[in-house]
Amino acid sequence: MREAHPRERRVGIEYYLSDAAGTGGRLRATPEDFRVRELETVEPEPLSADVGDYPHLLVRATLQEWDTNDFARRLSDALGVSRERVSWAGTKDKHAVTTQLFSLAEVDPDALPDVDGAEIEALGRVGRALHFGDLAGNAFEIRVRDADIGSVEAITAELHAPFEGGSDSGGDRAGPVDAAVPNYFGHQRFGSRRPVTHEVGLRIARGEWREAVLTYVGNPFDAEPEATQEARTFVDEQAETADPDWAEAIERMPGALRFERSMLHRLREDGAESPEDWRHALEAVPTNLQRLFVNAAQSFAFNRIVSERLSRGLPLARPVEGDVVCFADTDAPEELYRPDPDRTQTATERRVDVMTRHCERGRAFVTAPLVGTETDLADGEPGEIERAVLDDLGLEPGDFDLPGEFHSTGTRRAVFVRTAVDVAVGGDGLGDEEGPADAYDLSFSLPSGSYATVLLREYLKVDPHDL
Asked: Which of 67, 93, 148, 277 is catalytic?
């Protein structure tokens, strides 16, 4: 294994699984170089279905250079309806060609507008709005340009190695090569330019409300604009005084940093004299961000556990005694290996060989915890790793018994991603267009919740900012 990029190590990602040198290269040189298509689970009723029973119009939109939130806003404006009547199952990158579903409450298909950079198709009607979870996964077609293509074959072989010698190394799924990569949470989970979200969450789990606020509002990073750094430094300085001037801190904080400003307004109003005041400041941000703080802490601990497992030489694609294994989602699309964390079993000494065969066939997956109040840790050496990481972070499951949106029961997550990968090097493009000689194309599918970067990073081995 190779050591990961320093920025990745900051968020618990310690290794590349493949030893071969990275290809480098450029992603998203054009929007067409990065294509994402949702793997859908929703089956609509016909467009003629009763609007009273099925009030939501389901549409499929293919977007070019549209941020999902911006497109939803543009669509609602064009329809003359509230933005709250537009829902979707997954957020997509702007610099890409994306195909995804939207539901539109109380909208007639004949009212669908023409939107530049978008092709919109009415599919049918559904009884409720889409929400996160109405998505099995995503299919990707990605071109890497200006790359050193010499190591593409070696990387692909290394990622396939966990399946060599198994009773079903390739299976009958689409794609010529099955690959396994660590199911890390990508760098963007923690803040691409300022990865502090997990640090805030760790402070919250430890009940350190004051430190959590200051980690988010203060705590300047060199990558930030000078004015932002100065404003955060002023916050840190005021926090150490007997009579902090939060009003001045608000004045100095750039207007674009609205969440930081919201927290500072609470501090000015409440006086910041008790832990409850600091918690109240954290609760000034939207509920989804409150949950994200805690989720990022769980994700960081998960990354650390996966990295420690790799460091000790424990496999990811097959269990050892004590592992908690989850089974595959039997309702997943045929081209997708999708874990079901609600169906688990411990790989006891008697069962480990049977569970290994299930994993080889893509029917089961080794897991690690996203720790919460209901988390049961593994046994044996996997359990030792989980407990050691949590001890090092000063965490235990009961710490997530928190007020409001900060509470989390936890779950488990597969420690590796299995996917069938098509690789086309140089002129052998995957699409109709022949690729340039210094480019290669990757085509693969991932379950919802897994990051395309976990595969791309193994090939490019570059700064995560460039993924």
From this structure: 93
